[in-house]
Amino acid sequence: MKFHIKPTFTLSILALLTAAMGCGDPATDLQVERLPEVQPNLPSVPTLPPPPHPTTYPDSSYSIYGLRARLSTTIDNSQVVTGYVVDIYTPPDCEPRSAGCRISAPHFWVADTRIPESELQDKRGEMLMVVGYAENQQQIDDAIEEHERGREPEVDPVTGRLVETGMYPIPVDLLIGNKIKLRGRFSRMSSAGFNNSEGLLDYHGHDTLEAVTPPEES
Fold it and tell me: Which residues have C-beta within 8 Å of that of residue 160, sequence separation ≥ 6?
């Protein structure tokens, strides 16, 4: 049996083969259109204000701001802090065991700047409470009286504690406005029962850097 291929069928196959072979060639009339550059509409980079106080001073002591800014490393450790005495607790003049008479253990506050008395309530968050230097006001009064008589307790130069009792000396020169360098343990709760979520300082001693003139007694 003989088969006859029609010319039209042959031409169709050749056309298909030619199209298949040429499908990988780039089109010669392809035009690339450049899209306009996209300009991102981003907000400007905010300018962060500088910190209100240095974290540490040249002598490596912390500011109150710095002590709290590095809370994760400063908390529950002994620290040295420089600040100003801005407020000192004064016990109420009442009988300790009488109704309504609430007397706290002695404590005072320091801040990175001197704060006027009229602004104390509004700026409590900027202050650091210092505790643990006396059990009551009478101990402070007695220590001041001994100091004025020239009777200074013997202090171990290595530990800074009293040789006789092993306690830290009771401060006798604290005045509002004094700039002092404090030593103590920074924690959220003191051994005397005070607590503060931002930390407080258990007193271990201090040096007075700048002293204000004490008020004259009338």
Answer: 168, 169, 183, 204, 205
Taking the C-alpha atoms of residue 165 and residue 196, their distance in angstroms, rounded to an integer, is 28
The tokens for 79 are 């620290």
| First-to-final CA distance of the chain | 144
What is d(CA 33, CA 23) in angstroms, rounded to the nearest whole number?
A: 23
Q: How crowded is residue 180: how many other Cβ atoms within 10 Å of its Cβ?
A: 22
Taking the CA atoms of residue 13, residue 15, residue 20 and residue 21 in that order, the dihedral angle to the nearest 10 degrees is 110
Phi, psi dihedrals of residue 188, rounded to the nearest 5°: -90, -20
Q: How does DSSP classify residue 182?
A: E
Tokens 């550059």 correspond to 37
The span from the CA of 62 to the CA of 74, in Å, is 10
Phi, psi for residue 9 in degrees, rounded to 5: -65, -40
Which residue reads 């300082």 in tokens? 201
β-bridge partners, 208: 180
* Category of 164 on φ-ψ map: left (φ > 0), alpha (ψ -120 to 50) or beta: alpha
- pLDDT profile of the chain (218 residues), mean per 10: 49 51 56 76 77 92 96 95 97 82 93 95 94 94 94 91 92 96 95 89 96 72
DSSP 25-60: SPPTT--PPPPPPP---PPPPP-PPPPSS-SB-TTS
